[in-house]
Design brief:
The protein is built from eleven helices and seven strands. The protein is α/β, with parallel strands linked by helices. The structure holds thiamine diphosphate and magnesium ion.
Length: about 325
């Protein structure tokens, strides 16, 4: 990773965190009615992983956080319009943030029915193979989602057909109020790769370089025609499951312990030690994020609601 790439990743992580903090304020103040699963604590992993893709590749995001879209380069004002139900959104404000779709950058959306992402990723991978395209698919999913039956069907299919799909589990320890320990027999979800004879590994999802290296290697493997991989990034959801979640199912000590592993100060310290980041640039990056977010919120607030007569437009039938 060169210094430019490191700083670019850092900027996107900061923009994601600041945007989510503002979204939480807007929702709590009743200024937007949208629903949102915050990704605070998981930004480093999402940004570093997506940075390994080319613009022509496909990705399916999981339901948590804004960093996927920031990392992919979807204009943040569009995402805010999706959240707020305004015409300027990627889906004209009709699908909410669970359905941000941006085909220009291969963003195929998320599946509100968790586990729906796996067969969609397999289908995208199959289309690449049939059309002999030079593309790959990156499919994010949570630890809880890994226990759906579609996981088995899709990973086996991708392995048998050697499809260019990288499955990346964001293991944040919880699925709403169900801990991974209670729901999942294996300690490391990537161990399931042995059942599908595919490569993969478990790594620290709060360490930008570990994520980048592991995902980059799996993406290259897929691009070279060698088939799918199963990766697992260990991370933690630092906020509640949704904005407003009373979060009463975890101890405060547990959450506190993980705040000490917040990926942002970890990466900042690393970049400062390497002299890639200095206090003045850090302040500029923060200010730039604030300006971008202010502009995007203003754009969103000036957008109309979608016309009710357009409700059935874009519906496939
Ligand atoms: C099939 C299905 N079951 C339940 C839900 C409700 N639900 C939404 S998010 C969530 C938790 C998912 O946990 P995980 O996959 O670990 O992702 P995380 O929320 O931790 O990021 C659940 C149960 C759903 N959307 N779809
Ligand atoms: Mg989870």
């Amino acid at each position: 990773m060169d210094n430019k790439l490191k700083l670019d990743i850092y900027k996107k992580i900061i923009l994601s965190r600041r945007l989510e903090e503002r979204i939480a304020e807007l929702i709590k103040a009743g200024q937007v009615g949208g629903f949102m699963h915050p990704g605070v604590g998981q930004e480093a992993l999402q940004v570093a992983a997506i940075t390994t893709l080319r613009p022509s590749d496909y990705m399916l995001y999981a339901h948590r956080g804004v960093a996927y879209w920031v990392a992919r380069g979807i204009p943040i004002e569009k995402v805010l319009c999706d959240l707020a139900g305004r015409e300027g959104g990627t889906d004209h404000g009709k699908g909410g943030v669970m359905h941000v779709v941006y085909p220009e950058l291969g963003v195929l959306g998320a599946s509100g029915t968790l586990g729906g992402c796996f067969p969609i990723a397999a289908g995208a991978g199959l289309s690449i193979k049939v059309k002999h395209e030079d593309k790959v698919v990156l499919c994010f999913f949570g630890d809880g989602t890994s226990n759906r039956g579609t996981f088995h069907e899709s990973l086996n299919f991708c392995a048998v057909r050697k499809l260019p799909v990288v499955f990346l589990c964001e293991n944040n320890g919880w699925a709403v109020s169900m801990s991974t320990e209670k729901s999942t027999a294996v300690k490391d979800i990537a161990d399931r790769r042995h059942g599908y004879a595919m490569p993969g590994k478990t790594f620290d999802g709060n360490d930008v370089e570990q994520v980048f290296d592991a995902v980059n290697q799996a993406i290259k493997h897929a691009r070279a025609g060698n088939g799918p991989s199963l990766l697992e990034a260990k991370t933690y959801r630092l906020w509640g499951h949704w904005i407003g979640d009373p979060d009463s199912y975890r101890s405060r000590e547990e959450v506190e312990k993980h705040w000490r592993r917040d990926p942002i100060p970890i990466y900042e310290r690393k970049l400062m030690d390497e002299k890639v980041l200095v206090e003045s640039i850090k302040a500029e990056i923060d200010e730039d994020a604030r300006v971008q977010i202010d502009r995007a919120i203003e754009f969103m607030q000036n957008q109309p609601s979608p016309n009710p007569e357009s409700a059935l437009d874009d519906v496939y039938a």
